[in-house]
Design a protein that fits this description.
Layout: H1 31-39, H2 44-56, H3 64-76, H4 80-92, H5 100-111, H6 116-128, H7 136-148, H8 152-164, H9 172-184, H10 188-200, H11 208-220, H12 224-236, H13 244-256, H14 260-272, H15 280-292, H16 296-308, H17 316-327, H18 332-344, H19 352-364, H20 368-380, H21 388-400, H22 404-416, H23 424-436, H24 440-452, H25 460-472, H26 476-488, H27 496-508, H28 512-524, H29 532-544, H30 548-560, H31 568-579, H32 584-596, H33 604-616, H34 620-632, H35 640-651, H36 656-668, H37 676-688, H38 692-704, H39 712-723, H40 728-740, H41 748-760, H42 764-778
């Protein structure tokens, strides 16, 4: 994963062995004159200068072996510069076999002549145990001798001993004092370490301004780590105003010297377009430079580019290659990413064992993403035996580190009682933690809890608030839920336009429920002009995703011929798809098709089968329809007891048709003892809710004085309500009242009006009365 390293380095973890510069001597004009003085006169100065000429190839071909010979001649005569350079050649194995002991001896000879460079180098050998037993005391002694003479390297090295407490008590004050002396002489490492002290507030009050000042001095001398740290200060705006241009400038200086941290950070800056236009090619180039130096973070970043196809063609094999390099160095993020490739079979053969192994390695470094990913494996039983206890344990570890997704899934476990006792309070707590981090799925689930009152007091305002937060982040489920609140007026003023807006946002993200709900708005004309074509279009989108409700709604359009050519075959095919998945409305409607012979051969046995499936699931309309079959004996032996039982089950759910039919059973005494009071009670329930049949039958009770005082006025009132809904029997009965003048003045015109309406619907009694009235007119 992309990660920018901005850690400022501590003091350098090594002291510099300072190679003494060769002494600056006035060299005679000709090689021959120098050679003559050195060889013929045995002049030590001339011998030293001749050695310099051979060493650097001045006026003669470079020859380190001859340089060594002449240094030795001069050194044996006590020339301190020759002694130190001879010591250096033995130390480095330069022109001679490396020999730390001889190097020490020659350094010592020069040091005893008070040569500061030799004293410093001798201190270095004792500090590091090169050719001598490591002895910090002697190292300090020699550094002090050189430092007191103003040798910048020795002052730096002495400061370092105090800084690190090597052989002496750690003393930041003295470390600062010696670093300062050295730094003021322009010693880059001392300047850097002094900057680091101010940066970290070690032995001095933290002062980022002074840190920048000293880093800059060292950086201008080409000190790569100082350049990196200075770049990092500008990158992060630490002690300076954030300035990506200057950050890039300093990072580039360090990067050109091969500093991997700067190279990686430059990659990140170009990757993210920080202060510069995004440039994935440059990002890849800089990541590659650092990665080739085995820098694990750069290897991870490069792997991530290939993993996601950022600036390069997506290449899981290359992603794996880079992740693996970093993972083998112990980089936890790389270990997690490598595990993910094996987990999902990306660029490798899917291998859950390897995935688990790499996740576990990353978890040892407390990598939160790996904790979450392994938790998911155990939660779902994905490549491992399902273990909800382990899943919960790993989710909790990640959650305690603030990982929002882990908090969300812990919420789900408590919400659903997965591997734990269901606990809505704990579910809400975990959802809330993730929601406050902006995790939209948790925000949506928190909204559901407040909307439904799960573990909290039902609060539509809070539900709306959380849905909105998630919806504005593009969470399609929250957008759908918010749309539904406006659609139904839950805690808000019902607003079909807003419902439509949120449904459209969700639907555009592929949410099938939202697509279906948009279909319903157009189907019913809620907040939009009724448009069956658009309803069909949205239903089809959702149906294509396998959403049962949409398949059912689309079937209804074909069944009824709403906005489409009526097509019972298509309706039946769609009903069957969802009916087989347990959709009760589809099961009932299939029953109706076989019951009435709509688009199929009438088949009461199949009708009964489908009605029973829906009825067993408690669907009231199917219970009613099945009751009718037993009531009338359609395809079954007439059975009033079963009919009554089914009508009662449906009536308990306030099914008005069942209430009416049950009322009729009590009215006429079919399978029950005749009971006008119960009949009237049931008719009234259904009649007041607009059932035309119940209204007519209630009219009949008042008309015929069935259990009530005869009341033609009330009879007429109920007949009118029913007839107004085009119920044929009520139209005929109302005609009779006007014909006979019962509950009203006789009115043959009105009688004829209602008879004609009933006759047009095929009522024979109405036809007979119309004919009788016409004959009377002729007479």
């Amino acid at each position: 994963m992309n990660k920018k390293l901005t850690i400022l380095l501590q003091s350098m973890c090594f002291t510099c062995f300072i190679f003494s510069a060769q002494a600056e001597e006035t060299v005679p004009i000709t090689f021959e004159s120098i050679y003559q003085q050195a060889n013929d006169n045995n002049d030590p100065e001339a011998q030293y200068n001749l050695a310099l000429m051979y060493y650097y190839g001045q006026m003669v071909e470079k020859d380190h072996k001859k340089a060594f010979e002449w240094y030795e001649k001069s050194a044996l005569q006590g020339n301190q510069l020759a002694q130190i350079n001879l010591g250096l050649m033995y130390y480095n194995g330069d022109g001679v076999k490396q020999d730390f002991d001889k190097a020490r001896k020659w350094f010592e000879k020069s040091a005893l002549q008070n040569n500061a460079l030799a004293q410093n180098n001798l201190g270095y050998m004792y500090e590091n145990g090169n050719g001598v037993t490591q002895n910090f005391g002697k190292a300090k002694e020699w550094y002090e001798k050189a430092a007191s003479q103003g040798n910048a390297s020795a002052q730096y090295n002495l400061g370092y001993l105090y800084d690190e407490g090597k052989g002496i008590a750690k003393n930041y004050s003295k470390a600062k004092e010696w670093y300062e002396k050295s730094a003021l002489q322009g010693h880059a490492d001392a300047q850097f370490n002094l900057g680091s002290m101010y940066d970290q507030g070690e032995g001095v009050p933290q002062n980022l301004s002074k840190a920048k000042e000293w880093y800059e001095k060292a950086a201008l001398q080409g000190h790569a780590i100082a350049q990196y740290n200075l770049g990092s200060m500008y990158d992060e705006g630490q002690g300076v105003e954030q300035d990506y241009v200057k950050a890039i400038e300093w990072y580039e200086r360090a990067a050109q010297q091969g500093n991997v941290l700067a190279q990686n950070n430059l990659g990140y800056i170009y990757n993210k377009g920080l202060g510069v236009p995004e440039d994935l090619t440059k990002a890849r180039e800089w990541y590659e430079k650092a990665a080739m130096q085995n820098h694990p973070e750069a290897q991870v970043n490069l792997g991530f580019m290939y993993h996601n196809g950022n600036g390069v063609s997506k290449n899981y094999a290359k992603a794996k290659e880079w992740y693996e390099k970093a993972a083998l160095q112990g980089n936890a993020q790389a270990q997690n990413n490598l595990a993910y490739l094996y987990d999902n079979g990306l660029g490798v053969n899917q291998d859950f064992t390897k995935a688990k192994e790499w996740y576990e390695k990353a978890i040892k470094s407390n990598n939160v993403t790996a904790q979450f990913n392994l938790a998911r494996m155990y939660d779902e039983g994905h490549g491992v035996p399902q273990n909800l206890n382990l899943a919960k344990e790993l989710y909790e570890k990640a959650a305690m580190q603030g990982y929002a997704q882990a908090r969300y899934y812990l919420g789900i476990m408590f919400d659903e009682g997965r591997g734990v006792t269901q606990n809505f309070k704990k579910a809400r707590e975990w959802y809330e933690k993730a929601a406050l981090q902006g995790y939209s799925k948790a925000q949506n689930n928190l909204g559901i809890m407040y909307e439904e009152g799960f573990g909290v007091k039902q609060d539509y305002a809070k539900a709306k608030e959380w849905y909105e937060k998630a919806a504005l982040q593009g969470n399609d489920k929250a957008q759908y839920n918010l749309g539904t609140m406006y659609n139904r007026g839950y805690g808000v003023t019902q607003d079909y336009e807003k419902a439509k807006t949120w449904y459209e946002k969700s639907a555009s993200l592929g949410n099938a429920k939202a697509q279906n709900s948009l279909g319903i708005l157009y189907d019913k004309g809620h907040g939009v002009a009724q448009d069956y074509a658009k309803a069909k279009e949205w239903y089809e989108k959702a149906a294509f995703k396998g959403y049962g409700e949409a398949q059912y709604n689309l079937a209804v359009l074909y069944n009824k011929g709403y906005g489409v050519t009526q097509d019972y075959a298509k309706a039946k095919g769609l009903y069957e798809k969802v009916a087989l998945l347990g959709n009760v409305k589809a099961q009932n409607n299939l029953g109706v098709m076989y019951d009435k012979g709509y688009g199929v051969t009438q088949d009461y046995a199949k009708a009964k089968e489908w009605y029973e499936k829906a009825a067993r699931q408690g669907y009231a309309e199917a219970q009613y329809n099945l009751g009718v079959m037993y009531d009338k004996g359609y395809g079954v032996t007439k059975d009033f007891a079963k009919a009554k039982q089914l009508y009662e089950e449906a009536a308990k759910q306030n099914n008005i048709d069942a209430e009416t039919s049950l009322g009729y059973m009590y009215h006429v005494g079919n399978g029950v003892k005749q009971n006008y009071a119960k009949a009237k009670e049931l008719y009234e329930k259904a009649a007041h809710r607009g059932n035309a049949k119940a209204q007519n039958n209630l009219g009949v009770m008042y008309d015929k004085a069935h259990g009530v005082t005869q009341d033609y006025v009330k009879a007429r009132e109920w007949y009118e309500k029913s007839a107004g809904q085009n119920y044929v029997n009520a139209q005929y009965n109302l005609g009779l009242l006007y014909d006979k003048g019962q509950g009203t003045k006789p009115d043959l015109n009105k009688a004829k009006y209602w008879y004609e309406k009933a006759a047009l619907q095929g009522n024979n009694n109405a036809k007979n009365r119309l004919n009788a009235l016409k004959n009377n007119d002729k007479k």
